[in-house]
Amino acid sequence: MPLPDRDTLVAYPAGDVSSTGTVLHVERLADGRSAVVLDRTALHPVDTAWPDQPADRAALRWGDDERVVQDGVTGGIHQGVLHLGADLPVRNGTEGWTFVVAHVIEGAPPAVGTTVEVEVDAAYRRSLSAGHTGCHLASLALDAALAAAWSKPVALDALGHPAFDQLAIQRSQIVPDGSLDTYRVGRSLRRKGFDPAALDDPGAVAERANAVLTTWVTAGGDVRIERTDDALSARRRWVCALPDGPVSIPCGGTHVESLSALGSVTVALTTRPVDGGLELEMRTQVTPAR
Hints:
290 residues, alpha+beta, 8-stranded antiparallel β-sheet, 4-stranded antiparallel β-sheet, 4 helices, 18% helix, 38% strand, elongated
């Protein structure tokens, strides 16, 4: 059977944690495992272009069989070849490619044409969603806390503040009920007008950011994902109601439905010197509402 010529339809942007799909392709992997491609799934895979959110934990069920999904990765099909995970050479959505969710399992896979149920670990998803929403809020609060540190006009964030997060980010990792973001403040950022002295007291910056975060979370605004369609490669945006108005950020991850679910969001900032500048680390902690 030929490889799929249409993107996997994904249900996780709507918050779904279960789905039923048909096996379109099974790729045998070099380590003996198999990558199962369905026509639709609720499983959120790792995006290889920006792998900040881990894959969901999940199981596949068909007939009397069940397999734990050991990994969920994005795959791309081009000229009759399926490229998986780190071997995918293009970004999700690249023209001329078909993008699929690959469910990596051990043991005998289901046959092509089999109807398979996907069951996602809802508690783990919920904790990652809280961490991802908290991460977006923290980045905006950090931008606000550092807004006075710029002497030149630069790109602005969704709230109209100088986009420190966008301009300085090096790594971002979503974890259950939190995130870890690392920023580089070097010559390039200084040339853009950022004053590194603004980070001489990271505790004071964190205090300002946390005051903003408390105001936002207390307001309990709605959160949703807007998308053009259900295809894996469709453009998606995180939209959140904040006291000063709605904000919208491109995002392929999962999120809570309301800031009231977060309980509290706090950040801690630390700096360390590196060649040519300094590195800023922001740890975001979400304490979910009970």
